[in-house]
Amino acid sequence: MEEKINAKAVKDFFDQRAENWDKEVHHQPAKIRHLLSFLDLPPSARVLDVGSGTGVLVPYLKEKLTGEGTIIELDPSSSMIEIARRKWGEEGIEYFEAEIEEFSYDKKFNCIICYSSFPHFKDKKRAVQNMFNLLTEGGLVAVLHSEGRDRINQHHQTQMVGFDHLPPIASLALLFQEVGFTPIHQEDSEDYYLLIGKKVVDFSD
Ligand SMILES: C[S@@+](CC[C@H](N)C(=O)[O-])C[C@H]1O[C@@H](n2cnc3c(N)ncnc32)[C@H](O)[C@@H]1O
Question: How far is CA 99 from CA 36, 126, 130, 139, in A?
Fold first, then answer.
């Protein structure tokens, strides 16, 4: 897996784009709902939204977290986090300016979602390992995109983030397994790229 990513350049890139992000980047609600339907989130789940940007997932997560659920928005771009906070406020939501590779939290998560963000992580193995540590037993991790891999990689090629590649789904599934996840759903089609892994702990020994 390619690791030439300059985290500072990625942060600068997203900081500069943050203010216009919601005007320029359009998401299809039906596709987001379809992707989240694989996660079966209980109403009181604690969910980590990695590479949250301006908080595009927040309203969709709130549809599901009708109980005492909490959303944690995580992004190294201070401008993205500032906009997310301005848009969505503090009720049931916490905000952190950090990279997933370094992030720690005092409680475990039921679910960790990387929506349109995984290609930008500078150290993908470390990111997946840390997400494993941050999850409860039985918790789910999801790498989700509303387009297939070819289109996403073509799009990144034309941007400054040209090194930020999405790996073939089989390579990512292998990395998940190396770290300890059981892949429970994987798809790379024209419309979606999704990999969902479960933290299954084996007590048989
Ligand atoms: C393409 S944007 C997607 C934002 C949002 N999820 C959306 O779909 O609108 C990718 C986001 O990932 C963030 N990011 C980059 N490297 C990261 C890392 N190591 N850990 C967490 N987030 C990261 C960027 O700052 C950026 O906001």
Answer: 23, 11, 11, 20
pLDDT in tens, 68-101: 899 999 999 999 999 999 999 999 999 999 999 9
Q: What share of the chain in percent tops pLDDT 70?
A: 95
Other C-beta atoms closer than 10 Å to the C-beta of 78 total 13
Mean predicted confidence (pLDDT) in 167-181: 97
Question: Which residue ranges form the domains of the chain, and what is each CATH number?
Answer: 1-20+49-68+98-200 (3.40.50.150)
Per DSSP, the three-state class of 199 is: coil
- Tokens matching residue 20: 């216009």
Any idea of the CA torsion for 80, 82, 88, 94, to the nearest 10 degrees?
A: 90
User: Ligand 1 atom 2: the closest Cα is on which residue?
Assistant: 117
| 205 contacts: CB under 8 Å, gap ≥ 6 | none
Whose alpha carbon is nearest atom 22 of ligand 1? 51
Cα 117 to averaged position of ligand 1 atoms, centre (Å): 4
The residue to mutate among 73, 117, 124, 151, having the most atoms of ligand 1 within 8 angstroms of its beta carbon, is 117
DSSP tag of 165: P
The answer to whether residues 198 and 186 touch, using CB atoms and an 8 Å cutoff, is no
DSSP-assigned beta bridge partners for residue 205: none
Question: Residue of the nearest CA to atom 15 in ligand 1?
Answer: 120
